[in-house]
């Protein structure tokens, strides 16, 4: 028996259990690299047993090099699949920079084409992520990339990328009995566009297993992985709710003659928009391939789902949407606080001080109309910031997501937030917005995008039906912010 398979894209059929190689970095944390030949042999054993889809990243130690060695030695015609991620630091994403990033993946894997290249971006306020994806699309057309995916994108920005013409096939996100965010708005976007999820964290770093059933709250953990997922457990309402989920999963596991971990993974796999789950491998150490094959020998029934729902009701939803843990509090990551990292990132725009009036500064965002019409994107006078009417223009004249009011609203609000931040403010300082919409059909999608962005700090808002926006612009937004004194 081998794992079930799923078509991720035309011509790309994957194992529904992907072998994750993030633990290579952990195994090499003391600076000693794994023996590449032995590690490649261990990978080949996974592939022979049908677990032939490997997931890694540019920062997973020597994982790409090990996989490259395994591919080099592979005797068959249908070689295993190598999925990797490119996670560049925010900054300009020129054609040369993107090509260099992709070429490094090709060189390390020793292949002519990356089967699936997944893109991660830290802050959507820095708009160069769109440049990167468009350059990746060009390299896909050139044949250097097979398919393009993203990692940790929320529903709004996944929709925005797709509406702007990026042919994404996957989004890799956290999804588990504890972290159920991917069953919300993201599921609807996936259904609308035919995108599938690759789920990680399905076992919450090992917490969703028999060994934690009935155990006391450890309070803290010594290793980075369990520290991360303990934060998820606490954010979901704490240890008691977590134990309720474990008890329900244990009852279901005994009923079907499988492990508690099998139940946890099966629940994720049964979501229609999930192509596969990623289960980590410590090369040369424990292997659980036979146990994981039991995932495909049973299915959850209505009684099982009802029992799990009763347990879910004893927890609280993880706040926000998928990927928010990397971009805003609460930072449910290994370090537990990424604010310093985000503060060190380069701003999308720089403020220009007024040469005459003290405490006044302006931000220009590169639109071709700013110098022609004689205006700036935003101006700060004292503790007030006023943002000009902003449309979904990227760079000089690229119209983002033509005709899509929801996607354009998402892009505009990111652009406004970046301008406010360049002038010393933050999005929560925005006290008023005004939206000018092309037609009645744009009111609901634009309002929903506005509501998502300002969910925790809603400003006063006025909506106008302008009916006179030019081209493919469906919405224009202006804003006012006041900095705390």
Please give a handful of descriptors for the protein shown.
485 residues, alpha/beta, TIM Barrel, 60s Ribosomal Protein L30, Chain: A, 2 domains, 8-stranded parallel beta barrel, 7-stranded mixed sheet, globular
Task: Give the SSE layout.
Elements: E1 5-9, E2 12-15, E3 17-20, H1 23-27, H2 36-48, E4 53-55, H3 63-73, E5 81-86, H4 95-109, E6 114-119, H5 128-142, E7 145-151, H6 155-163, E8 168-174, H7 185-193, E9 196-200, H8 224-235, H9 239-256, H10 260-269, E10 274-280, H11 289-293, H12 302-312, H13 339-343, E11 351-353, E12 360-363, H14 369-373, E13 378-381, E14 384-390, E15 393-394, E16 398-399, H15 405-422, E17 430-437, H16 443-453, E18 460-465, E19 475-482
Parallel strand pairs: 3-4, 3-10, 4-5, 5-6, 6-7, 7-8, 8-9, 9-10, 17-18
Antiparallel strand pairs: 1-2, 11-12, 12-13, 13-14, 14-19, 15-16, 17-19
Helix pairs in contact: 2-3, 4-5, 6-7, 6-15, 9-10, 9-12, 15-16
Give an account of the 3D structure.
The chain is an alpha/beta fold and 485 residues long. It folds into two domains: 5-326, Alpha-Beta Barrel (TIM Barrel), CATH 3.20.20; 349-482, 60s Ribosomal Protein L30, Chain: A. The chain is 35% helix and 20% strand. The protein has 16 helices and 19 strands. It has helices spanning 23-27, 36-48, 63-73, 95-109, 128-142, 155-163, 185-193, 224-235, 239-256, 260-269, 289-293, 302-312, 339-343, 369-373, 405-422, 443-453; strands spanning 5-9, 12-15, 17-20, 53-55, 81-86, 114-119, 145-151, 168-174, 196-200, 274-280, 351-353, 360-363, 378-381, 384-390, 393-394, 398-399, 430-437, 460-465, 475-482. Strands 3-4-5-6-7-8-9-10 form an eight-stranded parallel barrel, surrounded by four helices. The chain has a seven-stranded mixed β-sheet with strand order 11-12-13-14-19-17-18, covered by helices on one side. A two-stranded antiparallel sheet has the order 1-2. Helix 2 (36-48) packs across helix 3 (63-73). The longest helix is centred in the middle third of the chain and has 18 residues, at 239-256. It is globular, with a radius of gyration of 24 Å. The model has no long low-confidence stretch (mean pLDDT 94).
């Amino acid at each position: 028996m081998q794992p079930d398979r799923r078509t991720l894209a035309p011509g790309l059929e994957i194992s529904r259990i992907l072998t994750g190689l993030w633990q290579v970095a952990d195994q090499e944390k003391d600076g000693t690299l794994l023996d590449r030949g032995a590690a490649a042999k261990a990978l080949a054993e996974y592939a022979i047993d049908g677990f032939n889809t490997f997931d890694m990243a540019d920062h997973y130690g020597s994982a790409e090099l090990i996989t490259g060695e395994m591919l080099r030695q592979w005797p068959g015609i249908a070689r295993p699949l190598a999925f990797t991620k490119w996670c560049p630091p925010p900054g300009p994403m020129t054609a040369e920079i993107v090509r260099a990033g992709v070429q490094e993946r090709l060189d390390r894997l020793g292949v002519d084409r990356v089967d699936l290249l997944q893109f991660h971006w830290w802050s959507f306020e820095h708009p160069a992520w769109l440049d990167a994806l468009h350059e990746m699309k060009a390299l896909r057309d050139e044949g250097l990339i097979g398919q393009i995916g993203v990692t940790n994108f929320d529903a709004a920005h996944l929709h925005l990328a797709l509406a702007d013409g990026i042919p994404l096939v996957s989004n890799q996100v956290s999804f588990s009995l504890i972290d159920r965010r991917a069953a919300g708005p993201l599921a609807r976007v996936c259904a609308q566009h035919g995108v599938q999820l690759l789920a990680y964290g399905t076992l919450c770093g090992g917490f969703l297993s028999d060994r934690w059933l009935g155990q006391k709250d450890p309070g803290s953990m010594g290793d980075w992985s369990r520290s991360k997922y303990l934060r998820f457990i606490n954010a979901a309402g704490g240890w008691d709710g977590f134990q309720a989920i474990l008890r329900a999963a244990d009852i279901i596991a005994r009923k079907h003659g499988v492990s508690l971990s099998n139940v946890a993974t099966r629940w994720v796999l049964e979501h229609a928009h999930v192509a596969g789950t990623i289960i980590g491998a410590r090369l040369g150490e424990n292997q659980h391939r036979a146990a994981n094959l039991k995932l495909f020998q049973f299915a959850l029934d209505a009684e099982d789902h009802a029992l799990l729902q009763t347990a879910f009701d004893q927890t609280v939803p993880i706040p926000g949407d998928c990927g928010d843990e990397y971009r805003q509090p609460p930072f449910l990551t290994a370090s537990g606080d990424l604010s310093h990292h985000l503060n060190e990132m380069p701003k999308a725009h720089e403020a220009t001080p007024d040469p005459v009036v003290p405490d006044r500064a302006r931000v220009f965002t590169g639109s071709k109309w700013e110098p022609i019409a004689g205006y700036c994107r935003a101006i700060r006078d004292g503790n007030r910031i006023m943002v000009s009417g902003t449309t979904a223009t990227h760079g000089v004249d690229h119209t983002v997501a033509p005709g899509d009011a929801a996607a354009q609203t998402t892009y505009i609000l990111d652009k406004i937030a970046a301008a406010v931040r360049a002038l010393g403010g933050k999005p929560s300082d925005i006290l008023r917005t005004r939206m000018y919409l092309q037609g009645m059909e744009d009111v609901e999608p634009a309002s929903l995008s506005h509501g998502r962005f300002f969910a925790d700090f809603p400003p006063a808002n006025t909506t106008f039906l302008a009916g006179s926006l030019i081209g493919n612009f469906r919405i224009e937004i202006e804003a006012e912010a006041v900095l705390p004194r």
